Amino acid sequence: MRGISSQLRGQVIAGLLVVSTAVIATLATAQKADSTDLTTPSFLVATRDLREPPFQHAVILMIPSSEPPLLAGVIINSPDKVRVRDIFPQARQLKRTQETIYLGGPVEPDEESVIFRASSPPGSATRIFDDTYVATGHDAIAAILKDPRVADLRVISGKAQWLRDQLYSEVMRGAWYVVPAKSDLVFSDPKDLWSTLVQGGDLQEAEAGQAPALSLPHARFDAKNRQH
Questions:
Q1: Ranges of H-type helices in the chain
Q2: Which of 6, 36, 45, 152 has the fewest CB neighbours in a 10 Å radius?
């Protein structure tokens, strides 16, 4: 009986060690997620393994969320066939008369937003970083399209949204590269943007030996930006 008891005791101890190791690993992962900085303006760049529409080859600019604790972003390299002027006839200062709406993501596809650069912020806009702003709502976008301070702009329909832990999990599974956002890239030619950034992400991952740390903005729109 003593031999059996010792064997059982050994099995129990071994089992406890396995459980303890799993718990420690889970806590370590949770601690890492909780301590991740979510304030740096960033792009999410779809890795080569991500093949799910509409995110395949997507470059997403993270923007302040209007619905915390959700994180939000808009795809910036997926132009549609619908022209901006078809929806906003007052868009006279666009560089190209054929400027089109961009498809920003599967959430709220009928809601437009505008990302733009300006020397000073219009009252209805929220700053993303540097001289780059975002605003939502038809009236707010119409006013910005007529504002002489506005330089580059993109009108975008729809957006993407995640819970914080959900997005962190996707990054850790290798679905996304996290790349610091730059204004020049936001408004660059969408045809080459993904290939340029994904090559940089591949290089960063190879040098680091692991997925980059999650670094995304997490602020909220002012109430006046929720125009309908």
A1: 2-34, 84-87, 138-145, 164-172, 183-186, 190-208
A2: 6
